[in-house]
Design a protein that fits this description.
- There is one protein chain.
- The protein is α/β, with parallel strands linked by helices and 659 residues long.
- Helices cover 23% and strands 27% of the residues.
- The protein has 14 helices and 34 strands.
- Strands 1-2-3-4-5-6-7-11 form an eight-stranded parallel beta barrel, surrounded by five helices. A six-stranded antiparallel sheet has the order 9-8-32-33-34-29.
- Helix 1 runs parallel beside helix 2 and helix 5 runs parallel beside helix 7.
- The chain is globular, with a radius of gyration of 29 Å.
Length: 659
């Protein structure tokens, strides 16, 4: 990928979704392989990935495979074998977290730094570039100024080995710095760094201050709204980002189609304004629907920290999809609800999903079995799928939202996009007959010939128009005809069957030329001698889980290397999560907001706070200098006993040469 190219990077749970991501404008797709992919329910066979690769490469789109879990020593060899299988399948890059992979016999394939590598500083980014990573995804928590500082630290954009900056622009937000959350493993034995997070951040908590008083009750204080950078793309580009990543390897087909199309439209508008920038793959998309991020599951949207810290980044009331306001209840019956829509033109469909907040501010969902229009003024009678007695606090006057529009969903179940590569056709008359040449927007050409003799047209006035019309019928091919040039010695008649065969053969030759021209981007060469890591001491937060990773850091000058948290060497209280989100700030208790906050029970003393969910208790500590929050706790004895740690134990000592 060149520094003037913009890459739209879409997720895929499986190969079929990946194919539709490409069809809807993705310049690259990231997908999990059969293992080591940091999403336990999003695995794919090498054969399916190869099928996706073949489709993507037709458009010069690229396929990245996630191998971004931390690995035990006994997993390094299976990971090595898988890397070679993926390379043979044509995969363009591997997304990695574990630096031990850089110390084994990998194929000559690009390596990209996963979000799990927690890239927040210019020093860390520059190190990973110098270690041979070609693309690095930045922490979601960065501001525009911090992104620009990292971009500057990487050197000239056209310098050999210069890494591409990648940034998440849409989707669910993990509240922790990626790779810096261990609550799931500490409480359940399911490691987020190994792709099996239990999502403790989406649970409701009671928040208590240092005196045991309740500051917030049953709030999802660690649950973030969803990321949406639609309004910031131009500034993110100016800060240095060239790859725009959509979160969602667990998401369904409709989400990937819709969100990919949404950002394709936005980026194409920018490319029209900025001729010095181009898209990273070939072809333009035509959509048969109006992309709309609000139609998919979301927890409402935030642009997080890109424009600085804000108070409204949390989805504290519910981690569910609140949907869009659609109207209010006018009456309820034994098996129905009457709704007055806010807009009389709104249509409610069978199968729609509605929701409302009960008196405890809990979101209650209601699926429609049947919907009937009562009048033309927007009054509807809907019959829920479930019995009415299950809908607590549903009464006259309650606002109702729609969080699933079945008409829109059904539209995306059909063919919803076409992606075509621009092509120019030239028909030349030769001494032997005709030659058709098809040249695409990337400069590739394919030709076919039709031997003579040629017939003169009986109707010269229509001859050229008929030839152009026939040659332009590229049908279900990849190509969209922009122009047809005729270089003939006079008006000619060519039977449609012969023109069809000529056109088909020329297009086949063009596709063959495109395939032959495809080349894998080279693996970056690490700087020699190895550059020093920015720190000489690593704690469990570095996620070093095997000896090859330990060797990597030792080679780069690190003197003290602790084992990953999953090795069970940290038995006491430690930071189980580090996050830029601050509960104290979000509850308006930050000292920078006010000297003291007086409530019903007196002045709240905010630190340390506790989060309580049932029997689970976590302590909140606030590091005000970097403006970060630490969620502190310790690993459960049951996890220590039940979950096997790494078979090789590390010790917090200077590494021995050759270990």
């Amino acid at each position: 990928m060149l520094p003037h190219q913009l890459e739209l990077l879409a997720p895929a749970r499986d190969a079929d979704i990946g194919i539709e991501a490409v069809n809807h404008g993705a310049d690259a797709v990231y997908i999990g392989g059969p293992s080591f992919g940091a999403r336990t329910s999003a695995d794919n066979s090498v054969q399916d990935i190869a099928r996706l690769v073949r489709h993507a490469h037709r458009y010069n789109s690229r396929i990245f495979v996630t191998m971004n879990t931390i690995l035990r020593d006994d997993e390094l060899e299976p990971a090595r074998k898988l890397a070679w299988q993926l390379y043979d399948a044509g995969v363009d890059a591997l997304i990695v977290q574990d630096m031990g992979l850089l110390e084994i016999d990998l194929p000559p394939i690009q390596l990209h730094a996963s979000t799990q590598t927690d890239i927040r500083t210019p020093e860390k980014a520059r190190f990973l570039q110098d270690a041979g990573l070609s693309q690095i995804v930045l922490a979601r928590e960065l501001t525009l100024q911090q992104i620009a500082a990292i971009d500057a630290a990487l050197g000239a954009k056209d310098a050999p080995g210069r890494a591409i900056l990648e940034f998440f622009v849409h989707g669910a937000l993990c509240v922790a710095y990626s790779g810096q959350c261990y609550i799931s493993h500490a409480h359940t034995g399911r490691s987020a760094n190994r792709g099996d997070c239990s999502q403790a951040c989406r649970l409701p908590y009671e928040v208590k201050d240092s005196q045991g008083r309740i500051v917030a009750h049953d709030k999802h204080v660690l649950s973030m709204k969803d990321n949406n950078q639609s309004d910031n793309l131009r500034e993110i580009i100016d800060a240095g980002v060239r790859s725009f990543k959509i979160e969602g390897r667990y998401k369904d087909m409709a989400y990937v189609k819709n969100i990919t199309a949404h950002y394709r439209v936005l980026l194409d508008e920018i490319l029209e304004e900025r001729p010095e920038l181009v898209r990273a793959s070939s072809g333009e998309c035509t959509f048969h629907f109006q992309p709309d991020p609000d139609q998919n599951f979301n927890r409402e949207f935030t642009d997080y920290f890109v424009q600085g810290r804000k108070e409204d980044i949390g989805a504290f009331d519910t981690p569910k999809n609140p949907g869009r306001p659609i109207g209010f209840v006018t009456a309820t019956g034994p098996n129905f609800v009457e709704l007055q829509t806010d807009d009389a033109s709104t249509v409610i469909h069978n199968g729609d999903g509605l929701c409302y907040l009960d008196l405890q501010k809990e979101l209650v969902g209601l699926q429609i079995n049947r919907a009937e229009a009562v009048n033309k003024k927007g009054l509807w009678r809907v019959f829920p799928k479930d019995p009415m007695e299950g809908f607590k606090d549903l009464r006259k006057g309650v606002q109702v939202n729609r969080n699933r529009d079945m008409d829109w969903v059904r539209g995306l179940e059909k063919k919803s996009a076409e992606r075509r590569i621009a092509a120019w056709l030239t028909l030349d008359e030769t001494t032997d007959g005709l030659r058709l040449t098809v040249t695409d927007e990337d400069g590739h050409s394919g030709s076919a010939t039709l031997p003579g003799p040629l017939q003169d047209a009986k109707d010269p006035s229509q001859a050229d128009a008929k030839l152009r019309e026939n040659l332009s019928r590229l049908g279900d091919t990849l190509f969209q005809p922009l122009d047809v040039t005729l270089n003939l010695n006079g008006p000619r008649f060519v039977p449609a069957s012969q023109l069809n065969a000529l056109r088909r053969d020329a297009v086949e030759q063009l596709e063959a030329a495109r395939s032959a021209a495809w080349h894998r981007l080279p693996r970056a060469t690490p700087v020699e001698p190895p550059v020093a890591y920015p720190e000489d001491t690593l704690t469990y937060l570095a996620n070093v889980f095997n000896h090859k990773a330990r060797d990597f850091y030792a080679k780069h000058g690190v003197k003290v290397i602790a084992a990953a948290y999953e090795s069970h060497e940290e038995e006491g209280e430690v930071s189980l999560m580090i996050t830029k989100h601050c509960v104290r700030f979000s509850l308006s208790l930050c000292p920078k907001q006010a000297k003291g906050v007086t409530g019903v029970q007196g002045t709240v003393k905010a630190e340390p706070m506790q989060l309580i969910n049932g029997k689970e208790k976590l302590t909140l500590r606030f590091d005000c200098k970097p403006c970060e929050m630490h969620v502190v706790g310790k690993i459960k004895r049951s996890v220590m006993n039940a979950v096997p740690a790494s078979p090789v134990r590390f010790y917090k000592t200077r590494p021995t040469a050759g270990v």
